TrEMBL record:
It comes from Tichodroma muraria. This is TTL11 polyglutamylase. InterPro entries: TTL/TTLL_fam. It comes from the Eukaryota. GO terms for cellular component: ciliary basal body. One of its GO terms (molecular function) is ATP binding. Gene3D superfamilies: ATP-grasp fold, B domain. Keywords: ATP-binding, Ligase, Nucleotide-binding. GO terms for biological process: microtubule cytoskeleton organization.
Amino acid sequence: QFPFGRRLPCDIYWHGVSFHDNNIFSGQVNKFPGMMETVRKITLSRAMRTMQDLFPLEYNFYPRSWILPEELPLFVAEVRMMKDSNPSWKPTFIVKPDGGCQGDGIYLIKDPSDIRLTGSIQSRPAVVQEYICKPLLVDKLKFDIRLYVLLKSLEPLEIYIAKDGLSRFCTEPYQEPTLKNLHQVFMHLTNYSLNIHSGNFIHSDSVNTGSKRTFSSILCRLSSRGADVKKLWSDIISLVIKTIIALTPELKVYYQSDIPAGKPGPTCFQILGFDILLMKNLKPMLLEVNANPSMRIEHEQELSPGVFENVPSPVDEEVKVAVIRDTLRLVDPLKKKRKDTHTLVCGSVPMAGLAGMSSEALPEPTPSAVLCRRCQSLEQAPGARQELPDAPPSPEAALPSLCLKQVFPKYAKQFSYLRLVDRVAALFIHFLGVKGTTKLGPTGFRTFIRNCKLSNSNFSMAAVDILYIDITRRWNSMGLDHKESGMCLQAFVEAFFCLAQKKYKSLPLHEQVASLVELCECRLAALHGKRLAWGCH
Ligand code: ADP
């Protein structure tokens, strides 16, 4: 640890909180700029809403959410409308403060009028979300899944998922929410940090009992009950890929601002914690994404009243050590060298897909996989080193097989049509002009309209300015970031959707947006003689 910085550059920087913990000019950093902001409850809900507007069926794994306080009237009106059209609908909602964690400030309500808007803590910006009333229960208890996901690279997009995760259990038997039990956190909230304080919390050295278990132990149980575990894995992989696709546009804006393209700089990777709830019908639902998931492998035990000791937690150790070990293996700067030598010898034999994953649902892996079983066994086989006199000894040969499995670009083909906002973000970044900014000024917006030839007799440049001012003012009035003035990416996306709707009236929204993106890319290509890097296809 170098709390006061370090002079000599490192290959890998392991920051505790964010990209900005140190000034880094080379090597690899374990955080992306802007990740913390991008996965906050409000920003995540906004990004998911944009995707739900474009692709409602593909993004139905995120509960319907509203942003408070600005969308309170909308929330009230929509709930009233849904209740009117279906009087038997008796919903419950969960209110979660923005930026909160560990269940902090969360409460359940039955009616929009129960939202607490007064008082210092309660008046924080928050997300109110439809509460999933019918979760899958194990031993009559609600539980959620923490899955670790490695975002290895943003451009090109590379995603890995750990094949095991944690299941965190409530400590009171679950009942569907009623006015009487709404406040019972040990029944409704699965947070470890809350349930540990319940008298019923069970620490266990075994991975398949107690209040924290491995996800694989749950899968075993489900499988023995006849559940389709392959389909469940395939759904979880889709959820993870789609969620990251929703986050990449914003991340790319932060990335180019902190690490301008074409200049020497570090590259980034990041381990994310995905919190997923399984519904009774085994449909996985995304609860949240954690930019700094806890990597503790110990837990506190109260030896005598008030006296605590840290003791090893075998369940945490089993899952988390593998995630960190594999992350380091995958970002290992010496690996490329070894890979080149290996490819010469054995070619590329891709590793098997994620354990238990449906191979029919998702296509075959691309031949780009780097590690291969043949290669490993070759190294382990006696005499193999004689065939490779110059190959460096591979420390990987002695390690267990990878727990992190590549899912992107492996399954890229199936999901590429969802990367529409990425292309809108590429246009936005193109017109940002001055590097180091994340917001578009009025001149940049005008240049975008002019270069893409979007104004005409029905849409004058004066109307363009009004659109810019209207949308930018509204976003800035509710924005959390007042450091820079101008139009943020989400505001640009809104303006872009608006233009697309105007131009291609009768099409569904995603086709309107796709048509406009295509048009802009072509007009810019004609102007610059080539396509934008992120818009190419
Ligand atoms: P925090 O960051 O404070 O932990 P979460 O969004 O993870 O906030 O929510 C805390 C807990 O509340 C979750 O672990 C889960 O048990 C429960 N929860 C959150 N959202 C929902 C929901 N929409 N439906 C049912 N339970 C939920």
